[in-house]
Amino acid sequence: MQAGVAVKSADGCNFLRRVSKIGLWTRFALRFGAWRMRGIRNMPRPLFFVNLLVLAAVCFAEPLYDLAGGTVADSLLRGDLLSEARFGDASPVLAPNSAALRSILERSAAALSPNMIVESLYLHKKPASFGAGDWTRAEKTSVLNTLVSLSTLAGTRYYSNSRRQMRVFYETSGVINDPREKTPLPDPAFSPDGNLPSALTLYARQKDLSFGDNVYRYDYFITDGSIIFTQKNYTALSYGIIPLAGKEKLCSAVAVIDAEKYFLIYIASMAKAPAIPGVKKKAGDSFKSRAEALIKWFTERTDSLS
Is there a smaller number of Cβ atoms within 10 Å at the N or the C end of the chain? Predict the structure, then answer.
């Protein structure tokens, strides 16, 4: 691995996920037993099998329904992009039921004491080259390589609510060795034959038309069922002439969670914004549009994986 990239190595295993599968069979058996005890066994055979299929669908709707909850999961399966902006109380409300993600969000909130949070949640079907079950090491490696290819963010576009038109998100984007020298480095790339890291830190220099030319720190966390990264501003940010966030006072978390046939994509941006009328609303609209651009960037790149 090149200079400027900090890595922690780990050889993940799928033991816990196999245990969760056993739990599914146990839950189905218990529900089926209780179902029969209530006298359902006396119903006509065709109706019995229809209800059996419904019960199986409910019990085996893992992991999406456990990750997102019934109502949210139903909306996601319809193709909805869910968004939520909260000011004052910056507690997440759309975060999936992932211990790793919630731990990262809690640590970020403790460090920031944010007064605003903007969340987005989206479900995207995996590319045809992926299997329908848990992702393999090769599939997971390809997802990680997509998420660390920060140079490919250059030229992405988002919808500007203030200008009511599409704008360039990042004019330039690239990995650098450190925040002081800012020497450009190629995007890291991992081999599917090797062990993936459990944690990874990158620095990137990125120029966007709203916040200018800045340095960001990216921290990646790789678990069996998710790849999560946070982006923190290493330099102070301004929205035009208005100061928006001091150094490390803006944090975005992006999670790609393995949901068998799908990627469950969650993005949250937290900030301690100044108490200037209108700033939070403008920043909230901007964060939402940028989240949509990131989702589009990720899904288009993974759709092309073979």
Answer: C
- Phi and psi at 97, nearest 5°, equal -80, 75
Neighbours of 86 (CB within 10 A): 17
- 39 lies in which domain range? 9-60
Same domain, 31 and 120: no
Residue at 2 is within a domain: no
User: Among 59-68, 82-91, 255-264, which stretch is predicted with the lowest mean pLDDT?
Assistant: 59-68
Q: What is the pLDDT of residue 276?
A: 56
Tokens at 47, concatenated: 């109706």
* Same-domain pairing of 13 and 112: no
Q: At what angle do helices 137-148 and 279-303 cross, to 10 degrees?
A: 140
pLDDT for the residue numbered 235: 86
Question: DSSP letters of 189-221?
Answer: ---TTSPPEEEEEEEEEEEETTTEEEEEEEEEE
Distance CA 116, CA 92 (A): 10
Query: Is 237 in contact with 250 (CB distance < 8 Å)?
Result: yes
Contact 297, 173 (CB under 8 A): no
Residues 6+ apart with CB under 8 A from 68: 76, 96, 97, 121, 264
φ/ψ of 183, rounded to 5, equals -75, 125
Residues 186 and 268 in one domain: yes
Q: How many domains does the chain have?
A: 2
Average pLDDT, the chain: 82
Question: What crossing angle do the helices spanning 15-37 and 45-59 adopt, rounded to 10°?
Answer: 150
